[in-house]
Amino acid sequence: MRQSLRSSPTFWLTAFLAVTSSASPIFSGSDVAQLVEDLEELPATLKDIYVSGSSHPAKNETRRCKVYPGDLEWPSDEAWEKLNELTDSRLLTKPEPKASVCYNGPSYDAEKCAGLAPIWSRSYTHMHDPIEMMSPVAQGMTCLPPNVFDSGNCTRGGFPMYVINATEPKHVQLGVNFARNTGVRLVVKNTGHDFLGKSGGKDALSIWTHYFKSIEYIEDFVDEKLGYSGPAFKAGVGVQAFEIYKAAREKGRTVVGGEGETVGIFGGYIQGGGHSPLSSLYGTGADQVLSFEVVTAAGDFVTANSSSYPDLFWALRGGGGSTFGVATAVTVKAHPDMPTTAARFSFTSEKIGNETFWAGIRSYVDYFIPNADAGTYAYFTLIPNVWTGIFTFNMSPFFAPGKTLEETEALLQPWLTRLSDLGINVDPNITHWDNFHDAWRSSFPLETVQKVNATTGSRMFPRANFETEEKREELYRNLRQSSENNRVQVHFNIKTVDPDNADNAVNSAWRPMILFAQQAVRWPVNATAVEKLRIRREFQEGDMQRWRDISPGAGSYLAEADRLEPNFGQAFWGDKYPRLLELKAKWDPQDVFFATTSVGSERWKVETPDGLPNENGKLCRVQSAPS
Ligand SMILES: Cc1cc2nc3c(=O)[nH]c(=O)nc-3n(C[C@H](O)[C@H](O)[C@H](O)COP(=O)(O)OP(=O)(O)OC[C@H]3O[C@@H](n4cnc5c(N)ncnc54)[C@H](O)[C@@H]3O)c2cc1C
Ligand SMILES: *[C@@H]1O[C@H](CO)[C@@H](O)[C@H](O)[C@H]1NC(C)=O
Ligand SMILES: *[C@@H]1O[C@H](CO)[C@@H](O)[C@H](O)[C@H]1NC(C)=O
Ligand SMILES: *[C@@H]1O[C@H](CO)[C@@H](O)[C@H](O)[C@H]1NC(C)=O
Ligand SMILES: *[C@@H]1O[C@H](CO)[C@@H](O)[C@H](O)[C@H]1NC(C)=O
Ligand SMILES: *[C@@H]1O[C@H](CO)[C@@H](O)[C@H](O)[C@H]1NC(C)=O
Ligand SMILES: *[C@@H]1O[C@H](CO)[C@@H](O)[C@H](O)[C@H]1NC(C)=O
Ligand SMILES: *[C@@H]1O[C@H](CO)[C@@H](O)[C@H](O)[C@H]1NC(C)=O
Ligand SMILES: *[C@@H]1O[C@H](CO)[C@@H](O)[C@H](O)[C@H]1NC(C)=O
């Protein structure tokens, strides 16, 4: 049956079926046999709709924007209904933003609205939602609970219009094919944690990967080419940090994942690099990958590993999400579980004064290299308070995987002694656990999300910034200047060298890194669009540029960064960028996939009505795509 369908060159069929090059395998598996049967029964009316409504197979490359409602080519309701049928009724149509209960309209519910405000900044509130993302600034601020931010009324803004709640590769293939053949904008959403809001897109079709939740333990995974023989986990791409760490603990293992409790480990995190409480020992998240199962832009479901499509395998490990394909499962190395010690403490400038406070911070900078080299991950914040003039330092936590209590105390002692000599008395809570999972769970904060008036920029400061007294002084002065300019800083003293030296697309700037530094700029909640843009640009030209100036050639982390990061190709990928552009042209020549600041994204721009960088606008070309 498949044969006869493939040999009939029926035009409308190609709207759903994979376009396969001779080098690519055709669909495999029973899902696909079923899909082919379903397509055979498509009504003739739908066929006509496809013929007139899409530009397949010779896509009109001159179309300036993706296809939007109101365009002649926008798929009919019937076409969307058929997509729903083919995806086992998993297509959600116009899902309402969560805060729609707060605004006039059919969903209005005062009680539900009142319940939202207190939990709005928790990631758990949003992570099961088909469209919500953790950054409303990137969405366009069009529907928030009024107690958090008054949106005036509730519109979908930068949220997608249709969502496939995918649970099988077939659902993903159908979404990719539909978008490619109709020209509708495609987005991929997992948890929505990305700082830049890369899981959103106005009036797009979204493939929602959250419910790919399987976890399989493989006792002995062997890949001779990668030089790996050992335990592994094969996880669905919807698996989150708290889930994989728990599963690993049950097998006496750990895996490299984020510190953030609810981050999706096998989606944007792992494709974008990914730092971890275990990175100083094992490198980035992407360095752990042994294999991907992935749906390509052509709609093929393939394995990308060291021998099967090795170039795609290379690009997916660090090249960034929503660029080369939609992964459905990822196999990663598993490491032995280990006892872990963590310390938490804080101090403020309130009683000791500014100069003593900053002398304490300055003395800490001297220990960044030895602490990262010792395999630790220190997560600390520097918070200014513009009203009181008080600065706060929070170590939350100093995380020492594989270390005993005594070893951890010994590592911290030199700095704590200097603090005490300065008259800064801290009272560290140093706790030891016999396993990684419990240490992680008890030590890291659940970070707040949904900030309405802030954006974060980041820099990967290399070892060179810490090797001499002069350099450490310069770095310290620049952190202090940011605090004095009222920037909230979040830092990770960390090393991300892969001990196995994997050849992948991870930004080369990760390798010499000793400090992963973030700073956030804030603006008055009621600022106009023009003011916001001015503040954000000044931040890039000021505080961020100072950080870039003292770390020439270093980079920024693509998943924890600012949409306005200049020269993002260099910043997010360094010397890997030219090859990534070539692979983008090879694997997604039509730009089916797009995410802002992703590889090749400079060809496109979201045109927002107020000129702010967010998803609330049409995605249009800024120059003609390469032929
Ligand atoms: C509270 C918080 C804590 C964090 N902690 C850490 C941390 O400890 N370490 C760290 O490195 N980062 C951390 N991050 C950043 C995090 O890694 C990024 O937000 C990352 O993009 C999250 O990936 P996701 O798939 O969960 O998110 P999403 O925002 O849903 O997706 C991110 C990007 O990946 C794409 N994508 C998702 N799944 C797939 C897929 N299967 N195939 C193709 N593309 C896909 C999306 O289209 C999007 O472009 C944190 C972020 C937050 C908000
Ligand atoms: C291609 O798109 C352009 C611009 O939207 C339009 O003018 C033209 O008619 C289209 N051509 C075809 C063959 O659809
Ligand atoms: C509400 O939304 C409508 C439709 O998008 C828009 O025209 C109007 O200006 C909005 N009102 C407010 C108060 O934002
Ligand atoms: C998405 O699918 C999952 C798994 O079938 C289901 O549990 C969940 O309720 C669905 N979510 C929505 C919003 O449809
Ligand atoms: C890589 O994928 C191919 C195709 O699925 C498979 O035959 C091969 O065994 C895989 N390699 C490893 C090391 O698993
Ligand atoms: C400390 O510095 C801050 C910011 O520069 C300033 O507002 C504050 O007044 C200073 N505090 C003291 C006690 O000097
Ligand atoms: C120290 O931290 C541990 C782990 O988070 C916690 O259980 C304990 O109560 C803390 N001790 C004190 C004195 O705060
Ligand atoms: C940012 O918004 C928060 C409320 O969400 C508010 O408390 C804070 O003062 C605002 N910051 C500025 C600089 O306006
Ligand atoms: C924002 O609010 C502040 C304080 O209420 C006010 O002084 C300022 O004029 C407002 N700005 C705008 C643009 O409305």
TrEMBL record:
Pfam families, sorted: BBE, FAD_binding_4
Write out the entry's keywords from A to Z: FAD, Flavoprotein, Oxidoreductase, Signal
Where does the secretion signal sit in this chain? 1-23
Q: Which GO terms describe its molecular function?
A: FAD binding; oxidoreductase activity
Region of interest (Disordered), residue spans? 607-627
Extract the InterPro entries matched here: BBE (IPR012951), FAD-bd_PCMH (IPR016166), FAD-bd_PCMH-like_sf (IPR036318), FAD-bd_PCMH_sub2 (IPR016169), FAD-linked_Oxidoreductase (IPR050416), Oxid_FAD_bind_N (IPR006094)
Identify the cofactor(s). Answer: FAD
Q: Where is the FAD-binding PCMH-type domain?
A: 156-337
PANTHER family per record: BINDING OXIDOREDUCTASE, PUTATIVE (AFU_ORTHOLOGUE AFUA_1G17690)-RELATED, FAD-BINDING PCMH-TYPE DOMAIN-CONTAINING PROTEIN
Family, according to the entry, reads as follows: Belongs to the oxygen-dependent FAD-linked oxidoreductase family.
Q: Give the protein name, as stated in the record.
A: FAD binding domain-containing protein
Organism of origin: Massariosphaeria phaeospora
